[in-house]
Write a structure and sequence with these properties.
single chain; alpha+beta; eight-stranded mixed sheet; 39% strand
Length: 453
């Protein structure tokens, strides 16, 4: 059976004088003094009084222990929080290093200039340092409906195109202009120009196309495709070996009183058709340009191949169709080579750096050939004047610059960029903001060049 604490406590006698009796309670080495008042007469404490006194002392000891425990627990919590914050900080720095990014914004070197210079170019030249040019040609037709104005006696000869064949020998056969041809319809037609028929090659007859027109005006010469013989060879061995076949219908033959478009209005309509067709063909040519080539708007020559109409037909006497067929011939220049020639003219000591001219296509070009009609196949050299105001912009090799910047210190950035004369100014943004070194991977470096438009 557990012992009763009160049974082990002996009564304490009080003396007649005031004394302080130490009462030592071993609880975490805390000592509590109990002051006992002096009594006039000795008097014993009852067990109940001793028990209450002990409980009061013990309660104070417990309160003191609680305050100390709380202080210990609070200090322990602070230490844990400090360790957690330090660990989290190191973790953030470690993880952020995996996401280092750099953005470099560059303003390239730009130089304004005005050009008014004559250049020379050689057709299809591959010689280094020589400016080369190429040809492009596109054909088309355009039509316009015009109101008739007057009635006149009118006659027109039928026209068409035929293919002449030489199945006689391997020798070229020349035919003069207006060579008479006999059609299988019994009508006589004539060639519009001098023509040469090639000889037999690889067991195949030589052939050539040529325009023809009827010997007389009138609808009787209009016909669907027919065969032809050369009337001048009749009675010789060549008569059977030289022959022709019309390519499409022969049409346009008319005689009678018909309503016409006046000459002035017809000329005006043809000029409008010419401008419209030329613009369409130019746009089509630009859309078909090989990559890296320029076609200046003034570096073209337009030639009308044929014009027809102006006479009303029986179905509609009030309106008439005016039609033209034409071909656009253009001179092409390789943009890179032309730019180099221009820069060499502006900068005598040009070092060969890669430069481009933003609006080079808007320059005005003047060809020395003018509008003269000539055979384009015979042109080997041309001279032209180029005029315009623009800027030269130096290009930046972005991939090369990235490889140079990898792992470099932020403080060395401006020094590195100063070694690039093609760069006017540049700025750097690193992420995270506390980073002081460039990323170790070029994929994490983004370069933005503010090229002018």
């Amino acid at each position: 059976m557990p012992k009763n604490l009160l049974q082990d406590i002996k009564p304490i006698r009080r003396t007649t004088s005031s004394n302080t009796v130490p009462l030592t309670l071993h609880k975490k080495e805390i000592v509590k003094e109990i002051k006992i008042e002096s009594l006039t007469e000795p008097k014993e404490q009852t067990r109940e009084e001793i028990r209450k006194e002990y409980e009061a002392v013990n309660q104070k000891i417990l309160q003191q222990d609680g305050r100390e425990n709380k202080k210990g627990e609070k200090g322990s919590h602070y230490a844990l929080w400090f360790v957690a914050v330090v660990a989290l900080t190191f973790l953030i720095f470690a993880v952020s290093s995996l996401f280092t990014k750099a953005r470099v914004t560059i303003n390239p070197k730009v130089q304004d200039f005005t050009l008014n210079q004559t250049f020379s170019a050689v057709k299809d030249s591959s010689t280094s340092g020589v400016l080369s040019f190429n040809f492009i040609s596109l054909s088309g037709e355009e039509e316009k409906i015009v109101n008739t104005e007057e009635e006149k006696d009118y006659s027109q000869k039928a026209k068409g195109t035929i293919v002449l064949y030489n199945n006689f020998n391997t020798t070229l056969q020349n035919l003069a202009i207006d060579t008479r041809l006999e059609g299988s319809n019994g009508k006589i037609y004539k060639t519009e120009k001098v023509v040469t028929i090639p000889g037999i090659k690889d067991s195949k007859p030589g052939s050539v196309e040529v325009g023809i027109y009827a010997n007389e005006p009138g609808e009787a010469y209009n016909t669907s495709p027919i065969d032809f013989k050369i009337l001048g060879f009749k009675g010789s061995a060549k008569y059977e070996k030289f022959y022709g076949r019309s390519k499409g219908d022969i049409s346009g033959g008319l005689v009678g009183k018909l309503r016409l478009v006046g000459e002035e209005n017809k000329a005006k309509a043809i000029e409008e058709l010419k401008m419209t067709l030329q613009d369409k063909l130019f746009k089509k040519a630009v859309d078909q340009l090989p990559e890296g080539y320029i076609l200046f708007k003034d570096a073209v020559i337009f030639k009308i191949d044929d014009e027809s109409g102006g006479v009303a037909d029986a179905s509609n006497q009030n309106e008439v169709s005016v039609k033209i067929k034409g071909t656009l011939y253009g001179f092409l220049f390789e943009e890179k080579n032309l730019t180099k020639k221009i820069v060499e003219t502006i900068i005598p000591k040009y070092d060969g750096s890669e430069v481009y001219i933003p609006n080079i296509k808007d320059f005005t070009i003047s060809l020395s050939t003018g509008s003269t009609v000539f055979s384009f196949s015979d042109i080997k050299n041309i001279n032209f004047n180029l005029f315009g105001t623009s800027s030269m912009v130096w290009n930046t090799d972005e991939e090369k610059l990235k490889s140079v910047l990898v792992n470099k210190s932020k403080k060395d950035f401006q020094h590195i960029l100063s070694q690039y004369p093609n760069i006017d100014s540049a700025s750097l943004i690193l992420r995270p903001i506390w980073r002081r070194d460039m990323p170790s991977d070029t994929a994490d470096i983004k370069i933005i060049v503010n090229y002018p438009e």
